[in-house]
Amino acid sequence: MTAPDSLPLPALAEDNLAAASPDLRAMVKTFADALMSAEADALCNATYGQVSDERVNHRNGYRPREWDPRAGTVELAIPKLRSGSYFPHWLLGRRRQAEQAMVKHVDE
Questions:
Q1: Contact, 15 vs 56, CB < 8 A?
Q2: Quick one: pLDDT band at residue 4, thresholds 50, 70, 90?
Q3: What is the DSSP string of 30-95?
Q4: Which residues pair with residue 74 across a beta bridge?
Q5: Are 66 and 73 in contact (CB under 8 A)?
Q6: Is a pLDDT exceeding 70 seen at residue 108?
Q7: pLDDT level of residue 105 (50, 70, 90 thresholds)
Q8: 40 within 8 A of 25, measured Cβ to Cβ
Q9: How far apart are CA 3 and CA 22, in angstroms?
């Protein structure tokens, strides 16, 4: 399973809206994967694949996790880190709370 590299959120929104895909689950998955990738980048202090002296950690693959928002079940790829751990805090709550947390992060 692979997740997208770090991409700017406006570009993702533009691509999904331009494709006018009726599959809401695909759009939810794209945004959730992009959000998790950005959070993992922040923890590593460098973007995916970037060589940097400021880097403090590295990615180490992905772990699959099903998420059940109202749009339907989505298979997410949660980034793993070589040292320490990462799990998106917005996935820990109940379904509705997790959706609200993801929307809040996208709006910021």
A1: no
A2: low
A3: HHHHHHHHHHHHHHHTS-TT---TT----EEEEEEEEE--TT--EEEEEEEESSS----GGGSS-H
A4: 67
A5: yes
A6: no
A7: low
A8: no
A9: 21
For tokens 């099903």, the residue is: 66
Lowest mean pLDDT of 11-15, 21-25, 89-93, name the range: 11-15
Structure tokens at 94: 């109940």
Amino acid letter, residue 19: A
Backbone angle region of 97, left / alpha / beta, with phi > 0 → left and psi within -120 to 50 → alpha: alpha
- Please tell me the predicted confidence (pLDDT) of residue 72: 83
CB within 8 A of 85, min separation 6: which ones?
A: none
Which residues is 62 bridged to in the sheet? 79
CA distances from 20 to 9, 15, 26, 73 (A): 17, 9, 11, 20
Residue 105 structure tokens: 């992060």
Q: What is the Cα–Cα distance from 4 to 36, expressed in whole angstroms?
A: 10
